[in-house]
Design a protein that fits this description.
Helix content is 35%, strand content 15%. It contains seven helices and seven strands; from the N terminus they run βββαααβαβαββαα. Strand 4, helix 4 and strand 5 form a beta-alpha-beta unit.
């Protein structure tokens, strides 16, 4: 399984762009990828996203950073070291749509099959199975990563999001849900809830 997290300049891949990509090979969590890229001039920088990723627009458009095409090339090269490449994330549709948009825009062959895993769906199912109604906002699920971390017994260490840190936290969540124990030493002191 390949745990993937992105930071972006907004919510829509046709309008906004990727700022950073983090990934972890679940079966070999020491094998990790992280790179930042510059926001293309044609992409919009939504100022409301700064609170999430912490990049200023000046940092996002830094000409010294790799282009998104160069980031994707690096990611593809790194992926050769990964054995099992099933796409997995907290909110898979978000990360998937951005990556697929950029892969196709830059004429790269899409490296993933049509199947993926979504931590949000697993926790939603797990709560329903335990008789807990997952939290909602405006009639739809509001199980963000912060709430999922709480559910699996992890204190959220983030003040802003970092794609690699998010991928690591997502891998930790998957591991606790599947095996009922911590994956990373960093979280070993945080008890896995008995219901997992």
């Amino acid at each position: 399984m390949l745990i993937i997290a992105l930071e972006t300049s907004g919510a829509y891949p046709d309008k906004h762009g990727i700022l950073s990509l983090g990934a972890i090979e679940f079966e070999n969590p020491d094998n990790a990828f992280y790179e930042e890229c510059r926001l293309d001039d044609s992409k919009v920088f939504d100022q409301n996203t700064v609170q999430f990723h912490g990049f200023s627009e000046l940092e996002a458009r830094d000409s010294k950073k790799k282009s998104v095409k160069e980031l994707l090339q690096s990611f593809l090269e790194w992926m050769q070291s990964v054995k099992e490449k099933t796409f997995a994330a907290h909110n898979t549709p978000f990360d998937w749509k951005f990556l697929e948009w950029e892969f196709r825009s830059h004429n790269f062959l899409w490296p993933f099959n049509k199947r993926s895993l979504d931590i949000h769906g697993w926790v939603f199912y797990h709560q329903l199975k335990r008789g807990i109604r997952p939290i909602t906002y405006n009639g739809t699920s509001a199980l963000g990563l912060k709430k999922i971390l709480e559910y699996v017994g992890i204190r959220d260490p983030r003040t802003t999001h970092n794609a690699l840190e998010d991928a690591k936290l997502e891998a930790e969540c998957f591991h606790r849900l599947i095996f009922g124990k911590p994956l990373f030493e960093d979280y070993a002191d945080q008890e896995v809830p008995k219901y997992l």
